[in-house]
Design goal:
The chain has about 425 residues and is an alpha+beta fold. It is built from 15 helices and 16 strands. The strands form 3 sheets. It has an 8-stranded mixed sheet. It has a 5-stranded mixed sheet with strand order 13-12-14-15-16, with helices on both faces. The chain has a 3-stranded antiparallel sheet with strand order 2-4-3. Helix 1 packs antiparallel against helix 5 and helix 1 packs across helix 11. The two termini are about 40 Å apart.
């Protein structure tokens, strides 16, 4: 039976890339002292209608929404920011407090599946609450930059920035944009014709050639930005320049969610074809108030793990795709229990050595073939002579070094030392 369209399996051969990306994102966020949290997959539909915006593509046509047995309208989460804000608000953690948090997991949107875009996709989210200045925007961008450095993709991504101004300036600009576009309505593509009545700012980033040509003559968002928002954005740009962070100003960048205000940003690449955005975010100072809380400054971003995996595999350093570090060969089944005991001791080493013990019996030659195929650096061989002498025969499967017998303690120390040196 096939899987559901737009959902996919991450098989063992691909899982190493996923784990490598997820580990870097989590470790970098932790190095900035951000705290992890976990969010439910299902929320009340009203959360996303109110927080994301009823006129957004997500709410209008992309959500997986259903009624439960009590008739409540529930939705598989299409994004994490609204859920995160709701959770912290429910817990009373946003009143006169600063929060820096992260989360990760699957999101769901009913979209046309293609490479880098799936109906179930993974995101790593970073959110901050209670901080109003541009310095927190800078911190988020520095965090992203460090993630890309550690993933080895820095040269393949570009930071694009814009400011949407305050809510009032955005309303004024929206009306000016509608006034300009209305005479061209029949020349716009179908999605833009619909958005003209519901979410006109999204027309700015249309990829349709004729629509883009029309938009090129539209009023600019920058001319409507209020002084306070301009000062915030200038402060952000000045700090980035001081820190040596390169950024491009993209005046048509608006993001697709209604809760954004002030700063918006995307990290984009040309290495993945049409799916060029690998991370996006900005400020959403009005979201908590939309959800029933008190006005709370907030900013964050979400990184698409699916696309980062593709990008890292395309341009990053080669991954270690080995299944284990040590393959334990047991020529005689009567020594399996002793080998199991030793293998468990090695697994407990702080170096994090991955140990696979051969099971199912078989000749020594076949076991060695499996050891080599596993990608292990070492084969440990335990037989009657080794056990009697308190030793292990260590065969190096990669590089030079041959085969040597040594004490169990010496073998464990050597492997741990070399694994740490290559990890």
């Amino acid at each position: 039976m096939p899987g559901v369209r737009g959902m996919r399996d991450i098989l063992p051969a691909d899982a190493a890339s996923w784990q490598a990306v997820e580990r870097v994102l989590a470790d970098v966020a932790a190095s900035f002292a951000y705290q992890p949290m976990r969010l439910p997959l299902i929320e009340f539909t009203a959360l996303f209608k109110r927080g994301v915006g009823e006129a957004t593509d997500i709410v209008e046509k992309e959500m997986y929404t259903f009624a439960d047995n009590d008739g409540e309208s529930l939705t598989l989460r299409p994004e994490g920011t609204a859920s995160c804000a709701r959770a912290l608000l429910d817990a009373g953690l946003l009143y006169n407090a600063v929060q820096r948090v992260t989360y990760s997991g699957p999101m769901f949107r009913y979209e046309r599946p293609q490479k880098g875009r799936y109906r179930q996709f993974e995101q790593f989210g970073v959110e901050t609450f209670g901080l109003v200045g541009p310095d927190i925007d800078v911190e988020l961008l520095l965090m992203c930059q460090e993630m890309w450095r550690q993933l080895g993709v820095s040269d393949a991504v570009v930071l694009q920035l814009n400011t949407l101004g305050s809510g009032d300036s955005r309303v004024r600009y929206r009306q000016a944009l509608v006034d300009y576009l209305t005479p061209f309505a029949t020349d716009l593509d179908a999605d833009s014709q619909r958005r003209l009545k519901t979410n006109p700012l999204r027309i700015l980033d249309s990829k349709n050639a004729r629509t883009a040509e029309i938009v090129a003559g539209a009023p600019t968002l920058a001319s409507f930005v209020d002084d306070e928002a301009r000062a915030h954005f200038d402060g952000l740009l000045n700090q980035l320049q001081t820190l040596g962070v390169d950024a491009q100003i993209n005046p048509t960048l608006v993001r697709g969610l209604d809760y954004y205000t002030h700063t918006v940003f995307e990290w984009v690449t040309d290495a993945l074809g049409a799916q060029g955005t690998v991370c996006g975010g900005g400020r959403y100072d009005g979201l908590v108030e939309l959800l029933g809380g008190k006005p709370t400054p907030a900013a964050g971003f979400a990184a698409g793990i699916d696309r980062l995996v593709l990008l890292r595999d395309a341009v990053g350093p080669a991954l270690d795709n080995s299944e284990c570090d040590v393959y334990w060969v047991v020529p005689d089944a009567s020594y399996v229990a002793a080998a199991q005991k030793q293998a468990n001791e090695l697994r407990q080493d702080p170096a994090g050595v991955r140990v696979r013990l051969h099971t199912g019996g078989g000749k020594m030659k076949n076991q060695m073939k499996k050891a080599d195929a596993s990608g292990a650096q070492f084969a440990f061989i335990v037989g009657p002579e080794e056990l009697a002498a308190g030793q292990i025969t260590v065969k190096r499967l990669r590089g030079e070094g041959g085969q040597n017998s040594m004490s169990v303690a010496e073998a464990f120390a050597m492997v741990a030392r070399e694994i740490q040196g290559t990890g």
